[in-house]
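Slide 14.
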Amino acid sequence: MEEIESKETKSPSGVMTIAAVAALTLVAGGGGWLAGMLLAPPAAEKTEAAVELPANATGEEEIARIATVANGIVQLDPITTNLAYPAENWVRLEVALQFNGVPDVALAETIHQDIAAYLKTVSLQQVQGPRGFQYLRDDIQERVDLRSEGRVTSVMFRTFVIQ
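Slide 15: predicted structure.
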């Protein structure tokens, strides 16, 4: 009887596959790092617009924010409230107001309370999707324009979360 020898093609071993994947991962990671270093803006140094905030009660210094009273921007405290319907849903909104001229902190607090009261009348269906969010932004801007009589030029949304 004759035995026919067949040529068997050997697949690469598991060790070779792991080595190839590891090498490709290192090349991809290095390329991503290089692209990030080339495209990322240089680390910003402290600008003249940034103002040092005083040390808090624990003695630690807070990080200076871009939004400061010195450059006409007042960042309002975060607003957390429930929606009108369904009442189980909560919304958290952080906004900053850009004033035309010297900021009025008392007016900013009044606007803060007005926005909080308005959010309690909004339903989830009104703010769903990009169009709903745009309507919310427009409504808040309109309310701020009426309340401030033109002294606030822009409402900047920092965060908007519905839970």
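Speaker note: The beta strands are 73-75, 79-82, 90-99, 152-162.
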